[in-house]
Amino acid sequence: MACGFLIWTCVAFAKPQPQAYAVSSAHALATETGLSILAQGGNAYDAAVAVSAALAVVEPASSGIGGGGFWLLHSHDDQLSVMVDGREVAPGKAHRDMYLDESGAVDRDLAVNGGLAAGIPGAPAAWDHIAQKYGSLPLAVLLDPAIQLAEQGFPADEKYVTLLAMREGVMNRWPETAAIFMPSGEVPQVGDLIVQPDLAKTLRALADHGRDGFYKGDVAEKLVAGTQAAGGIWTLDDLARYEVKERQPITTEYKGYELITAPPPSSGGIALAQMLNILEAYDLSGMSSVERIHVISEAMRRAYRDRALYLGDTDFVDVPVDLLLSKDYAAGLRTHLRIDRATPSASLANDPTVWPEGDNTTHFSLIDAEGNMVSATLTVNLPYGAAYAPPGTGVLLNNEMDDFSAKAGEPNAYGLVGFSANAIEPYKRMLSSMTPTIVRSDERVAVLGTPGGSRIITMVLLGLLDFIDGNGPMSWVSVPRFHHQYLPDSISIEPDSLSPETIDGLEALGHQVQERNRTWGNMHGVMWDISTNTMQAAHDPRWSSGGAEVVETVER
User: Fold this and answer.
1) Left, alpha or beta for 445 (phi > 0: left; psi -120 to 50: alpha)?
2) Which of 36, 73, 368, 466 has its CA 20 to 30 A from that of 51?
3) What are the tens digits of pLDDT across the range 108-167?
4) φ, ψ dihedrals at 528, nearest 5°
5) Of 164, 268, 148, 239, which Cα lies nearest the Cα of 200?
6) Residue 2 pairs with which residues in a beta bridge?
């Protein structure tokens, strides 16, 4: 039974005491940072700030102090949950048509590269907010590991190098930025040391002065001057007025499990709940591979359709949350879901488009020794964000403005379409697919999430279904992935993830199946098995840089 209190959400479950703590993140150094904070007596929220800051240094392709994210917090003692919304916002001078050229077409370069692509960052304010309101250690202590990593450097890993190669050409437009991430003048080799002294200074200003060290004063002045020099429209007032929001999580029940997940401006929680509401009428475990993938894909299709039509920042638009979460509404969607035939998206929308894979954005999951949990998904949008850092700051800007609908029905960099609900407006938060999630029963708890652009929601769906099937985190993060996002009208699959017979079966039902040339996502999960009082943690095997570890606090 779920219940609401203020903006927190509580779920009635038994409260055994854990005998371990666990962290899983996209980089081993960030995981070590989180574990060290927990070993010092910090709580899950302290560790979340420290891990976020460390990832901002060692995984700049995916998140950073110049970006934002969602931190889903759960308190074990009082069973309360809240989502801390540190999503970026549009600058005050932003407007609906700011990326349209003279012919009315979207200028994609302006929307994703350089100063005009950047929303006002939310990550630094969120770190300060979480530390002040929920943490037990000073912000300076929590940021110190990240400062040391920035000052002393870290070795570039495969992900750093691979994703930087995708953005090298754009980054070279700004030599001072390129010098930070390519100190030798070209994409580094795996193992090369990356040192970021300007970022260390910015982190130290935040550590010394809290949010004012970033949003006001010398750092803010450099950020605004540098952003404007690269074509941006930031002002000092934009930075000073940024506000963290606390949101009531989306909750739903699925076959005896309680789902706690992200509300708008994330589209993830509503879409995930809607998919599960559609699927609960089916015995997925009793289906053939073809039937199971078909039914799940049809649920995905319908949820992504509603994402495009209805979802946006609820501070600006009226999103019909109760309707979209309604079991009756899901039952209505099921009435035209045929087991023997795919539903053409063309009956619901027009021209499909092609979209690229996404491995940017990042996620971490953790549980402390008191049973407190954090599921956090962070981003700068495309790899290395806008590929630009204002001189003297070390702050790599996000390009989250592309997550707005720059033109009604026009796809963004991930092929996601949107309409007026997600149109650009000053100080509005852009719609997101980030889906930090906690799934609970009386016997087991899963904390999971992933990067992956438009595929985030479907990856989380497949991971939590695998958890509900009785599997542990190594299985969730490894499960082969397929995806349908309404437009384009096709099922996308990872290489060699489905047998030829399964593909033939899906195509016989009317599906188009597109096998991509590489895998996607980077899921991180932690599980607490309450029945045995043990923990497990795992990171996605698709990238070798991740770190996942459980530390026992009581000898067994």
Assistant:
1) beta
2) 466
3) 999 999 999 999 999 999 999 999 999 999 999 999 999 999 999 999 999 999 999 999
4) -110, 115
5) 148
6) 11
CA-based nearest residue to 433, from 410, 416, 408:
416
Question: For residue 487, what are the β-bridge partners?
Answer: none
One-letter-per-residue 3-state SS of 480-540:
CCEECCCCCCCEEECCCCCCHHHHHHHHHCCCCEEECCCCCCCCEEEEEECCCCEEEEEEC
Find the Cα–Cα–Cα–Cα dihedral 417, 420, 426, 430, rounded to 10°.
Answer: -30
* Closest by Cα among 193, 181, 191, 172 to 66: 181
CA distance 89 to 427: 5
Predicted local confidence at residue 411, as pLDDT: 56
Give the length of the chain: 556
Residues contacting residue 175 through CB under 8 Å, at least 6 positions apart:
none
Phi and psi angles of residue 396, each rounded to the nearest 5 degrees, phi first: -75, 120
* pTM score above 0.70: yes
Read off φ and ψ for residue 292, nearest 5 degrees. -65, -50
How many CB atoms neighbour CB 536 within 10 A?
18
DSSP string, 171-190: HTTSHHHHHHH-TTSSPPPT
Q: What's the mean pLDDT in 339-367?
A: 69
Instruction: Based on the residue annotation, tell me whether 162 is a catalytic residue of this protein.
Output: no
Catalytic residue among 177, 202, 227, 361: 361
Q: DSSP states of 318-337 as a string?
A: ---HHHHH-HHHHHHHHTT-
Q: Using the predicted structure, report yes or no on whether residue 465 has a pLDDT greater than 60.
A: yes
- Distance (Å, whole) CA 383 – CA 310: 27
What is the biggest distance separating any 2 CA atoms in the chain, rounded to whole angstroms?
Answer: 70
Other Cβ atoms less than 10 A from the Cβ of 217: the count is 14
Predicted confidence (pLDDT) per residue in 235-276, tens digit: 999 999 999 999 999 999 999 999 999 999 999 999 999 999
d(CA 273, CA 432): 16
Contact 317, 423 (CB under 8 A): no
Average pLDDT of the chain, as a whole number: 92
